Amino acid sequence: MILKEExxxxxxxxxxxxxxxxxxxxxxIFGTFLLVYGSYLxxxxxxxxxxxxxxxxALAVILSAVVKLVGIYTRNKKMMRVGxxxxxxxxxxxxxxxxxxxxxxxxxxxxxxxxxxVMVACYRIAWKGNYSH
Length: 133
Description:
This protein is mostly helical. The protein has one domain. It is built from six helices and no strands. It is elongated, with a radius of gyration of 17 Å.
């Protein structure tokens, strides 16, 4: 039993997921910004966000980022997996909203490129992740 735990600890040495932690911290900061300035998205997407309160999206981003960070720092691969999948889903939703706004009902804005970059980075982290037990 002790040997299995030592082997598990040795496999994690030197494999700190830097990019996963970076995007989780970035998402946590962005979610906190959305929570503090709840009217930010409503000001930009007034036509799209009339039904959804501003704090719901902020809490989704924050919760996903916290799950990912707890998984990283406790070396819990299931939490890491759930965290990156939920972060990918949230950033995909944000990218879709920005694309619809930029090309559909609003004025062209390059902000969808930034959201798309974060979305693609989350997909890359999820694809390259080592989730085997």
